[in-house]
C-alpha cells in the first residue's frame, strides 16, 4: 500500500480499479516479412478490430456529444475502410515485402505529409489528423499495444494520467469514471474545474500517480483530502468507505436546501449561481438548486467542435441555456481561449508565457470577426431569458470600451435588420487582472457589473502559474493582498450602485464564505456541486458579525495563514463541513 499526496480538486472519495492513460509506444523499425499472405491477413484482422473499436467509441460518444461532434467517428470509419488506402497498404506488402505495420505506417506518412502541406485547405489538413488517428489505431493493433480510450470506459474505474486536458475530461462518463488522479495540475486548472462539474472525486498534482499506479491496481482517490492510496488493505478501504458515508450524509442534509433561497442567519439575501462549460452541465445546475448561471465558459463550446461554431450553432446553445433558466440570470462570458485552452482550428502563436499572452479579449479585439459572430448569436438569443454578457481578461478601460462598442454596433445592426433583441442586457467584466481590481472605482462607472475571477486574479497577484504544482503553495486566496483587492472591487461597485459576483473557484470555498458574506458579495458562482454546501453554511452566518470579521482580517492579517486562523476561530461551523 502506497499513499501519494496531491491537491484535493473535487469532493468525494472513489474506490475502484485504475484505468491508466499512457501515451502508447507505437515506435518500431520498418521491416520486411517473407510471408505477404500472412501480413495481409494480419492487416485484415487489425482493420476489423479497429472497426469494432471505432464503432463502439462512436456509439458512446453519440450519447454524450452532439450528432455533429460524433460525426468525426464516421470520418474515421471512412478512412479505415477507404479502398484506396487498403490497396496502397497491400501493394507495399506485395511489392516491397514490408510487414503490415510498416506498410500502414509508410502509406499513412505519405498521405499525411501531402494533406498537411495543403496550408490553404483546412479541410484536407483535418483529414491528415483523421488518417493519423486511424492508422495509429491500426498500428497499435498490429503491434499488440493498447490505446487507452476514455470514451469507451464501461466499467467502474479511477482514471490515472500524467495530465488530462479539458477535452479528455469532457469525455469522461461519470457513470463509470468514479474519480481521477493526475501527476500535474492545480486546483484551478481547467480539468480540475471540470471534475467538479462532473461531480467526480479528483486529486491533481500528485507528482507520480501515473508512474506508480499500474493499470488494474486498486486505487482510492480521496478528493476531500488530496490523497491517492494505491492497493489499499481491507482496513484502509473500510476506513475510507466510512469517510465517504459521512460525506454522503452531509450531502443529503444540504440537499434539503435545494429549493430554498440563500439567506444568512440574519436574513440577508445572496445569489448562489453555478458555472457551466456547455449546455450539458445544466442538469447539475438544476439538480443542485443554483439560482442563476454566473459564468458560462463559452470557450468549451468552441473546444468541443472541429471547426469554429457558426453564429447559428452558437445561437442554439445560448438559447438552450437561457430557456432552461426560465428568466433567471445567465452570465455568458465571451470566448476565453488561450492559456491552457486551445482550439485545433485557431492557430495561436507559440508563447513563452501563454497565461500572460495572447488570450481572451485580446484575441477578441485583435480578431474582432470572432467576437462579432459571438455577440450576434448572443444578442439574437437574448430574448429567451435574462442575458448578461461578460468580457474576460480586461486589464484597462480602453479594452472594455472597445468591446462594448462592438457589442453596441452589432446590436444596432440587428435592430436595423428587424431582429428582436432584449433591451435589458447588462454588460460587465471579469476582474481577474490586478490592474483592473485596483482601478475598480473607475471601471465601476462604466460597467454594469463585475465578476471576480479569483483563479486568474490570484495567479497574477502572486505571480504563480495556476497549472504548476510546484508553486501551488502560492495559490493563496487568503493572502491579505488578494483579500484587499476583492474588497476594493466589491466596495467600488456598490458605490456606483452596481453589483459584484465572483466566479473563480474561491466562491465555492467554505472558508471564504464568511469573508465574502461580510464584504457583501452579491453573487457567488461556483461548480454546481458546491452550491448546496455553501447555501447551508451561509444560513449559519450572521452578516453583521461577518462584516466585522472581514474588516479585521483585511486590516490586520499579515499572512494567508494568519487570515485563515482568524476565520477558523470566528466561524466554528467550518469544522463541521
Ligand atoms: C473564472 C475564471 O476564469 P477561468 O478559470 O476560466 O480562467 C477565473 O480566472 O477565476
Ligand atoms: Mg480566468
Automatic annotation (TrEMBL):
InterPro entries: PEP-util_enz_mobile_dom (IPR008279), PEP-utilizing_PTS_enzyme (IPR050499), PEP_util_AS (IPR018274), PEP_util_C (IPR000121), PEP_util_CS (IPR023151), Phosphohistidine_dom_sf (IPR036637), PTS_EI (IPR024692), PTS_EI-like (IPR006318)
Gene Ontology CC entries for this record: cytoplasm
GO MF, any single term: metal ion binding
Binding residue positions for Mg(2+): 432, 456
Catalyses which reaction(s): L-histidyl-[protein] + phosphoenolpyruvate = N(pros)-phospho-L-histidyl-[protein] + pyruvate
Enzyme class: transferase
Annotated Phosphotransferase system enzyme I N-terminal domain residues: 5-127
Residue ranges annotated for the PEP-utilising enzyme C-terminal domain, each copy included: 251-542
Keywords from the named record: Cytoplasm, Kinase, Magnesium, Metal-binding, Phosphotransferase system, Pyruvate, Sugar transport, Transferase, Transport
PEP-utilising enzyme mobile domain span: 154-226
Gene3D superfamilies: Phosphoenolpyruvate-binding domains, Phosphohistidine domain, PtsI, HPr-binding domain
Protein family: Belongs to the PEP-utilizing enzyme family.
Stated name of the protein: Phosphoenolpyruvate-protein phosphotransferase
Gene, per the UniProt record: ptsP
Amino acid at each position: 500500500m502506497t499513499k501519494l499526496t496531491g491537491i484535493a480538486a473535487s469532493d468525494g472519495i472513489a474506490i475502484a480499479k485504475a484505468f491508466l492513460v499512457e501515451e502508447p509506444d507505437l515506435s518500431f523499425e520498418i521491416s520486411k516479412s517473407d510471408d505477404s499472405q500472412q501480413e495481409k491477413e494480419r492487416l485484415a484482422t487489425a482493420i476489423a478490430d479497429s472497426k469494432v473499436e471505432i464503432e463502439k467509441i462512436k456509439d458512446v460518444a453519440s450519447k454524450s456529444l452532439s450528432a455533429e461532434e460524433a460525426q468525426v467517428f464516421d470520418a474515421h470509419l471512412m478512412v479505415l475502410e477507404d479502398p484506396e488506402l487498403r490497396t496502397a497498404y497491400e501493394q507495399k506488402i506485395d511489392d516491397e515485402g514490408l510487414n503490415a505495420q510498416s506498410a500502414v505506417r509508410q502509406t499513412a506518412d505519405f498521405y499525411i505529409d501531402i494533406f498537411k502541406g495543403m496550408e490553404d485547405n483546412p479541410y484536407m489538413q483535418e483529414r491528415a489528423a483523421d488518417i493519423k488517428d486511424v492508422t495509429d489505431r491500426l498500428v497499435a493493433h498490429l503491434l499488440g499495444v493498447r490505446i487507452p480510450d476514455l470514451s469507451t470506459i464501461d466499467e467502474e474505474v479511477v482514471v490515472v494520467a500524467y495530465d488530462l486536458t479539458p477535452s479528455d475530461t469532457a469525455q469522461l462518463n461519470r457513470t463509470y469514471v468514479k474519480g481521477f488522479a493526475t501527476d500535474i495540475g492545480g486546483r484551478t486548472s481547467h480539468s480540475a474545474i471540470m471534475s467538479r462539474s462532473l461531480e467526480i472525486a479528483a486529486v491533481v498534482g500528485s507528482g507520480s500517480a501515473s508512474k506508480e499506479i499500474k493499470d488494474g491496481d486498486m486505487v482510492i482517490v480521496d478528493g476531500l483530502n488530496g490523497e491517492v492510496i494505491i492497493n489499499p488493505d481491507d482496513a484502509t478501504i473500510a476506513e475510507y468507505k466510512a469517510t465517504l458515508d459521512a460525506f454522503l450524509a452531509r450531502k443529503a442534509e444540504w440537499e434539503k436546501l435545494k429549493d430554498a433561497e440563500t439567506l444568512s442567519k440574519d436574513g440577508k439575501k445572496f445569489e448562489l449561481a453555478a458555472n457551466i462549460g456547455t449546455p450539458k452541465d445544466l442538469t447539475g445546475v438544476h439538480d443542485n438548486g443554483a439560482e442563476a448561471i454566473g459564468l458560462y465558459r463559452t470557450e468549451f463550446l468552441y473546444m468541443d467542435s472541429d471547426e469554429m461554431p457558426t453564429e447559428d450553432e452558437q445561437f442554439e446553445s445560448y438559447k438552450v441555456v437561457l430557456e432552461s433558466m426560465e428568466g433567471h440570470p445567465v452570465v455568458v462570458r465571451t470566448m476565453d481561449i488561450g492559456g491552457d485552452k486551445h482550439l485545433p482550428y485557431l492557430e495561436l502563436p507559440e508563447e513563452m508565457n501563454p497565461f500572460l499572452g495572447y488570450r481572451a479579449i485580446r484575441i477578441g479585439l485583435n480578431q474582432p470577426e470572432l467576437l462579432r459572430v459571438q455577440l450576434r448569436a448572443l444578442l439574437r438569443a437574448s430574448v429567451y431569458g435574462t442575458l448578461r454578457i461578460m468580457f474576460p481578461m480586461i486589464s484597462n478601460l480602453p479594452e472594455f470600451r472597445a468591446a462594448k462598442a462592438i457589442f453596441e454596433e452589432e446590436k444596432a445592426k440587428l435592430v436595423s435588420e428587424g431582429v428582436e433583441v432584449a433591451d435589458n442586457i447588462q454588460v460587465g467584466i471579469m476582474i481577474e487582472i490586478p490592474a483592473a481590481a485596483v482601478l475598480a472605482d473607475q471601471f465601476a462607472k462604466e460597467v454594469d457589473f463585475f465578476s471576480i475571477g479569483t483563479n486568474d486574479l490570484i495567479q497574477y497577484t502572486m505571480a504563480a502559474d495556476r497549472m504548476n504544482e510546484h508553486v501551488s503553495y502560492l495559490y493563496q486566496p487568503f493572502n491579505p493582498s488578494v483579500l484587499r483587492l476583492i474588497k476594493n472591487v466589491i466596495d467600488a461597485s456598490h458605490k456606483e450602485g452596481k453589483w459584484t459576483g465572483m466566479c473563480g473557484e474561491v466562491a465555492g470555498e467554505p472558508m471564504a464564505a464568511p469573508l465574502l458574506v461580510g464584504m457583501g458579495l452579491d453573487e457567488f458562482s461556483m461548480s454546481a456541486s458546491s452550491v448546496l454546501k455553501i447555501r447551508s453554511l451561509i444560513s449559519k452566518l450572521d452578516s453583521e458579525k461577518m462584516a466585522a470579521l472581514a474588516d479585521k482580517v483585511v486590516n490586520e492579517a499579515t499572512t494567508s495563514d494568519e487570515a485563515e486562523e482568524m476565520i477558523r476561530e470566528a466561524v466554528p461551523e467550518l469544522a463541521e463541513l
